[in-house]
Amino acid sequence: MGQITNSFLEAFKLIFSFDPELIEILYLSFEITIIAVLISSFIGIPLGTVLACTRFYFRKAIISIFFALMGLPPVVVGLFVYLIFSRSGTLGWMGLLYSPTVMIIAQIILITPIICCLTFQTIESAHLKYREFFQSFHIGRLKAVNAYIIDSRFELITVILAGFGRSISEVGAIIIVGGNIDHLTRVMTTAIALETSKGNLSLAMGLGIILLLIAVFVNVAMIFVKNKFLNPSNQDL
Amino acid sequence: MFKKNPNININNISYSINGKFLLNRTSLDISGNGITVVLGANGAGKTIFLKLLSGLINSDNGKIKTHSNDFSFGNSAMVFQEPIILRRSVLSNILFVIEKIQPHQKIMASELMDTLGLSGKDNQNAQTLSAGEKQRLSLARALITQPKILLLDEPTANIEPTSTIYIENVLRRKSSSGTKIFFVTHDINQAKRLANDIIYLENGQVMEYTKGSIFFKKPTTLSAQKYLSGIISDI
C-alpha cells in the first residue's frame, strides 16, 4: 500500500515539475496520435460516406470486411507492418522501421476501419431519414451528401474522438514497429510497459495517470457533444 | 384569374411488393385544378398513390400523364406526415431546396414564413420548433419551389389546431391561385372543409372518385358508406 502511495506522490511530482522526459513522451504520443487520427479521418469519413450513400456490387461484402477489421488484434497489425517494413520486407528499402512514421502507419491501419464503420452507420441513418425528402425535391447527390455530413457533424466529432481514444491507448502494434526507443519512439503506453518491467513505478504511474485523464477527458467530451448537440430537446446549431 | 390546368390522366397503374398489390390497376382522369382529397382506411394505398404521383416510386405498369410540360409532376413538391427537418436554421431549411438562391427568393421565404406564422424565427434552430411549426416549415419549404402540383401526406395528423388552420388557409389560397393539390387525410371533417373532389381507396382499389359535395352526401359504394359512418375504422 505504501509503495502505491509513494508511486502516486512521485508521479504527481513528475507531472507538476514538468519533467523533461515525461514531456517528451507526452509530446510524441500526441504527435503520433493526432497525425494518425487526422489521416484516418481523411480516409475513413469519405469512405464510410461512400459506402453509406452508394449502391454497387460487393458493397455488403466490403462493409462486412470493414466491420471485421474493427476488431483487428493490434499485435497482429504490428507484426504485419513489421514484416512489410523490416529490412527484408517489401518496403524495407524505405528504412522506416523503428520510426514514428511507421508507428503512425500502424495506428492508421487500426483506426481507419473504426472511423469508416462508425461514419458509415451515422451517414446511413441520415441517408435513410432524408432520402425520400431529397428525392422529392430533386436534390442532387453532391448536395445531399454534403447535407448528410453537415447534419451529422456532431456525431462525426464523436466518431473522431472515439478514434483518438483508441489510438492514444494503443500499445500492441506500436511497441512492435516502434521498438520503444528512448527519445525516438517512446510513447506513453510503451513507456508504461517498460518502466513497470524496470520497477520504475513512479514514471509508469505518472504516465498512467495522464493516460487515464486523457481517456476520461475524451469520454467526457463525447458525452458533452451528445448531450449538448445530439439531444433532441436541447439542440443548438 | 389563373389558367385552367389540363387533367391528370392516370392509366392502369399498379404497384406491388412481393406479389401483393398495394395499388391495383388504377385508372382515373383527375381535374388539374382544386384540392383532391385522398381518403381510405389504413393500408388502403393512399401513401403509395401519392408516392407514385410524385415519382418517389415507380409503378409496375401503366402511366401517369399531365399533357403539359409546364404542369407536370417534375414540378411538384411533397410534404410528408413526419416533417423532415434539417439540422440548421429555419430560413436555411426553407432555402435548402433551391438550387441557386436569388434575392427575390429570400423575400419570398420571408413572406412564406409570415403567412405560415413563422415570422421572426429565421435564425432559430429548426430542430427546436414545435411539431406544428415544423410541419408549417415543411409546407413553406415545399411552396418556395413554386410547385404546380403539391402533394401532402397527412400533414396535419400530429399537430395542434392552430397549425392545422394555418396550413388549410394556405392550401386554399394556393389552390385558388392554380396549384393542384393532392391531400391525404384521415380527418373526415377536414376533407369536407378542403375537398373539391375525393378519391376513396380501399385495398389498393379506387372505389370512388367524385365531387366532395356528392361523396359526403351520397357515397355510391357500400364501402365508402361504411367508412363515412365509422364502421370501417382507420385507427
What would your notes on this structure say?
The complex is a heterodimer of chains A (237) and B (235). Chain A is mostly helical and 237 residues long. Chain A is built from ten helices and no strands. Chain A has helices at 2-16, 20-53, 59-69, 74-85, 100-136, 141-151, 153-168, 172-178, 188-198, 201-229. In chain A, helix 2 (20-53) runs parallel beside helix 5. The N and C termini of chain A lie far apart (50 Å). The relative contact order of chain A is 0.16. Chain B has a domain at 8-86 and 148-229: P-loop containing nucleotide triphosphate hydrolases (Rossmann fold, 3-Layer(aba) Sandwich). In chain B, the strands form two sheets. Chain B has a six-stranded mixed beta sheet with strand order 5-6-7-3-8-9, sandwiched between helices. Chain B is globular. The model of chain B has no long low-confidence stretch (mean pLDDT 88). The interface between A and B is medium-sized, with 16 and 19 residues.
Low-confidence stretches of chain B: none
> Which sequence of SSEs, written as H and E, runs from N to C of chain B?
EEEHEEHHHEHEHEEHH
Fourth-tier CATH superfamily name of the domain at 8-86 and 148-229 in chain B: P-loop containing nucleotide triphosphate hydrolases
Report mean pLDDT of chain B, rounded to a whole number. Answer: 88
Radius of gyration of chain A: 21 Å
CATH T-level fold name of the domain at 8-86 and 148-229 in chain B:
Rossmann fold
In total, how many beta strands of chain B?
Answer: 9
**CATH level-four homologous superfamily name of chain A:** MetI-like
Number of helices of chain A: 10
- The CATH C-level class name of the domain at 8-86 and 148-229 in chain B: Alpha Beta
Helical region count of chain B? 8
Shape of chain B: globular
Helix-strand category of chain A: mainly alpha
Number of strands of chain A: 0
Strand order in the largest sheet of chain B: 5-6-7-3-8-9
Order of helices and strands of chain A: HHHHHHHHHH
Could you give a short account of the major beta sheet of chain B?
6 strands, mixed
Largest interface between protein chains, with number of residues from each side? A-B, 16 and 19 residues
